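Notes from hallway chat w/ T.B., transcribed later so I don't forget. T.B. wanted the structure written out for a chain they're using in a teaching module, and asked if we could keep both sequence and structure tokens in one place. Agreed to drop them here.
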Amino acid sequence: MIRWKKAKINELIEYKSGYTWSKDQEENTLSSEDLIRVLTVTNIQKELNDEYKLYLKKVKKKDKLDKKVNKNWIITVTSNGNRDRIGNSIFIDRDMEVLFASFLGAFKPLNENKLTPKYFYYWINRSNVQKRITSISEGTTGLGNMSLRHFKRMEVYYPDKGIQEKIASILSIVDKNIEQTKKTIEKVEKLTKSMMQNLLTGKIKPDGTKRRDDEFYIDEKFGKVPKDWDKGKAKDFFVLQRGYDLPDSQVKNGKYPVVMSNGVNIYHNEYKEIGPGVITGRSGSIGNVNYINSNYWPHNTSLFIKDFKNNFPKFVYYYLQFMHLERLLAGTSVPTLNRNDVHRIKITFPRNNEQRQIAKILDLIINEIKNLDSKILKLQKLKKSLMQNLLTGKIEVK
């Protein structure tokens, strides 16, 4: 039988606070060799977010050593306006020429033969540990702080080093699967963007072949247009209409989706329009486009296609996304989309048969993304269950 031990964090873990600097030390680009990058709260998400980059100048040599991000340290959010973020942690798997900021802290086992860094990383990210850290956070203003004195008194339950490594290895495999799936989604999303650009401008035919130059003509107003496509203003291909008022007090629970600017949040016992429907935000979430198969109630915060003008609804749905309607708000103080502004846009449309083929191709790609999203959710659920059971000894690892 595997023997498990427990000890308080202050007996097992060492802690370092982050680096504090002044505003005049900041640089947004790496403009000289004297600058050094610093990780901030923005960088600490479920994993390291490497997109946001901030550099500092005039950092003392001692601080560069003391506040450096080192291998096998766990970097944790220790101060934040959102207390649910306090305790969020990432694992550092390599030495980095990077500092970590004052609203962050760094933890590492004192004796890695007793408690391994990766095991502690998974322990601190357990949902009940994260909830505990949130509940004991301190601060009377809008800024919450991690209570180190309470945290250091929390107890860690751990087996021998070999079992810790096996547990961490199992959880790392799940993490790698999640990461690989996310990367696949990124690639498929890039493919989707490329396919929409090429299919909806006629550069590529639905069979995958490229349209030749002699299959286009140049129009002085519309530019390069496929010879078998129609051209005109958006209102020639579909007509948008403002949705219908539905006060909260009049909503009666039913089966018909009420489509608002940000999607479906409630269901009503009546509908106003027969599906399929294409709906986009009129105020609030502008540019968000929804496709509804069933009968529905378009809310007054939305615009819906009242007349498809014999065009294929699913194709129109994809085309509205391609139009990026949010760009029509540039320079406006109130985020409201005027349907007449959309109606005036010059566009080109393929004939109905090609519309159906294009929509079918894009459906296949979007469904693949949905399947991958579903896979990530299942993996995350599996990881949560494994963390709960492996890190408490409920499931034995041999």
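Follow-up for T.B.: Residues 161-199 form the longest helix (39 residues). Might be a good example for the class.
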